[in-house]
Amino acid sequence: MTEPSSSSAAAAGGLIPDLPDDVAVRCIARVPRSHHPFLSLVSRSWRSLLRSPLLSAVRSHLAVSDSPVIALNLRSPTDQSLWFLLDPLLVGRSGGTKKSPPPLRLPPPPLSAIGSACAALGPAIFLLGGSVSGIPSRAVQVFDARLRVWSIGPRMSAARQFAAAAVLGGRIYAIGGCLPPDDAWAESLDPAGGGGWAVVPSPLLIREKWMHGCAVLGGRILAVVDRGGVVYDPAAPPGEASWGPVPPVLDNGWRGRAAVVGGILYSYDFLGKIRGYDEESNEWKQVEGVEKELPKFLCGATLANLGGLLCLLWERKDLASGNKEMVIGWAGIEVLKTVDGRLRGSILWQEPLVLEAPRDSSIAHCVALEL
């Protein structure tokens, strides 16, 4: 493997006295991300390096890794697609006396599509389809969070808008979001294989469903609509149906976006509660112990699995503050299953973040990335 060039750092000059800049970059790259706010105080050249794609590329080359980060996508009132990187290692945890550094603004995707599906695999974000100039698209846009660059991936077989997307077994799945009776209602891609999309055979009966939620639970993909969600099992034995209905209890209780952590599927319901679906007992259970610390109703609530923690983000409506920028709240929650099967949560952090985005923006996507 060829090591990333450090020419940009060398141009800044003198990162560490008496050391060539390429050596200095490798030294700095080994420092955990939790220490980066302190390193950024050393000099402007250090601060520039810490926010550059070069450092991410060198860390990747050296196989340096930390806990995952959150990639957050906002849709502005003018339909701009705005992306930010939220790092849990940089959360201010000293009794509220310190604020986290502002989230890193990421470059926008080449195509501004409305209603794209989103999935993450390792350090890569996959944006699938969406409406471009009012027309559903087959485009696949890929963002490398280490190099912080977008590229165009293999086009899907079907044009899609508001589809479901999931990652299972190293493959990207796109489900629905296209007009029936399209045979490519479901298809999958192996990004490491270098090939194109492969159609996943699906019964004609389910192809009229339009998805609003997707998750992977127990090695199966759950794609949920208002009612009548479907399950896809890629490991189904030959001769057995790989598609089927989701359990009625799950179907009736899933509202909005969801995330799977520790084998439990979590969703934020219309009563303002975080609930988890336990597949073993086939029941929804309220996450106890967090209701007093969180606002009663969370607008735009979004969930993600952040390295085994339940990460919760929501849109704050701080209208009285006069802030013209978007403010979100985010919290990290550890959820444990008690001996009697209840779900008990404890909030590890909770704080507001001001984003470089118009105040009336809304959360479109939230995925965890491994850097």
UniProtKB/TrEMBL annotation:
Residues 105-350 form the FKB95-like N-terminal Kelch domain. Pfam families: F-box, Kelch_FKB95. SMART domains: Kelch. InterPro entries: F-box-like_dom_sf, F-box/kelch-repeat_ARATH, F-box_dom, Kelch-typ_b-propeller, Kelch_1, Kelch_FKB95. Residues 16-54 form the F-box domain. It comes from the Eukaryota. PANTHER family: F-BOX/KELCH-REPEAT PROTEIN SKIP4, F-BOX_KELCH-REPEAT PROTEIN SKIP6. This is F-box/kelch-repeat protein SKIP6. It comes from Canna indica.
